[in-house]
Amino acid sequence: MNDFQAIADRVEIEALRGEFTDAAMMRDRPRLASLFTPDGTLRMPDIPAEHVGREEIIAGGERLQSQWDFFVQNTHPGAIVLDGDTATGRAYIQEIARTLDGRQGLNYAIYHDRYQRTTEGWRFAERVYEVRYLDTSPLTGAAPQAAPASSFADPAPAERLERTAAALRGNGFAAEILDGAADARARVRELLPEGASVFTGASETLRLSGIDEDINTGSRYDAVRPRVLAIDRVTGADEIRRLLATPDYVVNSVAAVTETGSLVLASGSGTQLPANAGGAGHALWIVGAQKVVPDLSTALRRVEEHALPLEDARAREVYGSPSAVNRLLVLNAEPRPGRGTVLLLREAVGY
């Protein structure tokens, strides 16, 4: 191995260790798990916990991160010893954390690592977490107060939209950033082939943008919603279910999109969720800039604190009955290339 290859390997391994810390801080569990080989192991004897394979690492991270009030990890470079397609190394970390049940503290620890060169690049074959110093004295600081619900109506700035679009693409979605509702209306017309069966979800974004009217009136598409409204709810229940679940295209909005590239949809009845989850051959989601949030926990807050009260008021006025979040759908990635497209708007549309 020449010196240039050794330098390149060290740079890539150091980037791998930095990516691990970033994924942990951003609570991006799928990305963190992807940094390990398929049978890679994350061992934390002091917790204690041991996760083997990417699925266990994702599940273990979810259990751990759900307990945090706040968590900050700083990683400092350590040794790297190269040995062909394998390597060993250490990284030094400092962490402060408080859990929701009040446990808190400061610690200094070491990651003992084994690395493996793969077709995806260098990956962790094993990370072993060893605490060297622990101070459980009460922390004098605190996590910043959560943003008030009113901020959920404010459009995200350009850099957050770009970050969100990049994360969506990394998770298998197609993502485009458009100026506003008029551009989305024109783009949807370009993306939907004439004659396709199209189901539109119940969405103020679609209604206000005119997209709902474009699809559900006229003869350009085989619109599912008008067909469903013409079927008897009792005798035609099975036909309605099949029509809603498997159209060629579903066009909808979401309650929130995270900067880590996840989509969150909420529903009272759940009838529109199967098509979005994967039943439809293709999916288009039109998303106003005010729906961008940092992470999944904030997305769920946005659903409960912002979207639900507005939808409840609309439902009471239109239907004479309250709304509720009885079903939640979280799309963390799109495994079918080319199926899902997110049109992010620079303006706020809908709620």
Show the helix and strand layout.
Layout: H1 3-25, H2 29-34, E1 36-44, E2 49-52, H3 54-65, E3 68-83, E4 86-99, E5 104-118, E6 121-135, H4 158-170, E7 174-178, H5 181-191, E8 197-200, H6 204-209, H7 211-216, E9 222-223, H8 224-229, H9 237-245, E10 249-252, E11 256-258, E12 263-267, H10 273-279, E13 282-287, E14 292-293, H11 296-318, E15 327-331, E16 340-345
Parallel strand pairs: 1-6, 7-16, 8-9, 8-10, 10-13, 11-14, 13-16
Antiparallel strand pairs: 1-2, 3-4, 4-5, 5-6, 11-12, 12-15
For the sheet with most strands, the description reads: 6 strands, mixed
Structural class: alpha/beta
Query: Low-confidence parts, pLDDT < 50 over ≥5 residues?
Result: none
Mass-distribution shape: elongated
Q: Roughly what is the average pLDDT, rounded to an integer? A: 92
Portion in beta strands: 25-35%
Strand order of the largest sheet: 2-1-6-5-4-3
The string of secondary-structure elements, in order, is: HHEEHEEEEHEHEHHEHHEEEHEEHEE
Number of helical segments with 4 or more residues: 11
Give the % helix.
Answer: 25-40%
> Would you report the number of β strands?
16
| Oligomeric state of the chains in view | single chain
Provide the gyration radius in Å: 24 Å
Distance between the termini: 57 Å
